[in-house]
Amino acid sequence: MHELLLYGQVPASRHDQVLKILAGLAAMQPRRVLQRCILYKPQREPEEPGLNVRRGGTQNVAVKQAKPTAAPALYYTKLVQKLSEADFGTGDGLETQSGQHLSANIADGEEPKWSMRWEDIPDTGDRGVSIRFTNSTDLLSGDPHAQMIAAGPNRFVTEYYVEGYRFVLGNVVIFLHRILHEPGVRSVEETPKTHLPSFASLKLLDLSGAYILEAKVRVQDFKDATVLESGVNELKEFQKQMRGCVELSLPDRLSLDTRVKYKPPHAAAVSAQNRPR
Signal peptide location in the record (predicted)? Predict the structure, then answer.
């Protein structure tokens, strides 16, 4: 799945106004969204370029060395949990029943609450919108944290919360949101919390209280030029409709970089040797 994206910023003072404008434009009431995002980092190192060429070689067989290539990138991945106000703690030391453990188990007919999401770095945006490849998998059973640890293997990094409102206008998914986090230093940082804090205790990541307006079109068949062009045009039409209210623009692709910064051990050693004494 590919996503076509544009972003804008809405000051806290204009939140209610923009919310009403979006509701009128989309002809629907805003849909409340609460999410917990749990970030993971791969523990393994990327395979050294050319290592597969040297494997299995002998002293009697001449192996033609391939040209050096860049090491394959590793990416952060995240778990996304759909929440409601009732899932949060009450702030009186009593935990909600829904926060007793991490479980993706659902009954027949229920909507999945957990999903595993991977996002590529966006392309250069020569079409006027940001385009990136994403992969999202719903989890229907088991412990989502244990699955993430085993899949990489991965290591838990941090967790944060997203609250906002979602609209749908044709094929454009509009998400007006901001990021919250739990303040203070946690004593255990190897696993995500099994008991959610109270919603009132969460603090804004951006202290100004500004909201992010994300406009997104999902494209299944990226190689179909007609479908891609239609998605781009629909997103640009929404951008034109919002002109004068919220300026939607192409974000810096490196600000959405999900790659893990990795420095090979031999490169670090060479850097240390060349350092002036």
Answer: none
